[in-house]
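note to self — DONT lose this again. spent like an hour looking for the file last time. sequence + predicted structure for the chain T wanted, 290 res
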Amino acid sequence: MENNIKRGMLFGFIGIVCFSLTLPATSIAVPYFGETIVGLGRTVIAAIIVSIIFISKKELLPNKKQLKSLGIVAAGAVFAFPLLTTFAMKSLPVSHGAIELALLPLATAGFAMWRGDERPSKRYWIASIIGSVAVLLYAVFLGLGQLQNGDVALIAAVLTLGLSYAEGGKLSKELGSWQVIAWAILIGAPFFIVPVGLSISVDMLKAPVEAWISLLYLAVVSQFLAYVAWYGGMSLGGIARVGQIQYLQPFLMIGFSVLFLGESITWLTIVLAIVVVICVIIGKNAPVVR
């Protein structure tokens, strides 16, 4: 039992590190490949890998009820989140995005309560309001008095992925942990083939090595393997215990933005990240009444 917990924490940590590199990789790839290739093309590439795995393992098809839930997962994790974050990274620094994505665990908890027919306590709503207001004020401050389009996109990304995570967590009990994201990828990929194909140009061949590495990272790791590690970690070590590792994500993102993109970090960014994470911890652990 103790070994399972240790392995679960290790896999969960690996998953969060992989997710934390998503925004830096997106920021590097977008200028060379464009929003469609980076946002949707990653799913098409991941679908090829998933297809090979499913064929070799002879996975059974989901039933109609499961397909409905998989549609929700695909809409958030496979379509909306990649596309919205790709759009946002055209104009926002990664450290800025890390602060707004720090609200993801809170959004996931809220949608999990809603999908589970539960009523959040006042503590949850107070923490949610404080965390959300702090993020909005920070975004307005950096936007010189107004929200930028990238901020709106990131907030929408948090909400859609929060719903997708909650639905995926619920479905993984029936379908299996990594199978949820794998089926979601296969459901979404056919719809992306045409727009991705139309967006391919000869100029992309001139993209530097780091841009190609970033695109492949997004397709193979961010879109698939990171989910395998994350869901696998939670199944071994427990959702509540391993889920706490999410609180490291905004700080890892900020660190990677400094390391790989040379972004400068202010004390305001660090302090606000701490405030938001504290709000998320309080809200996520708030009592719930059915």
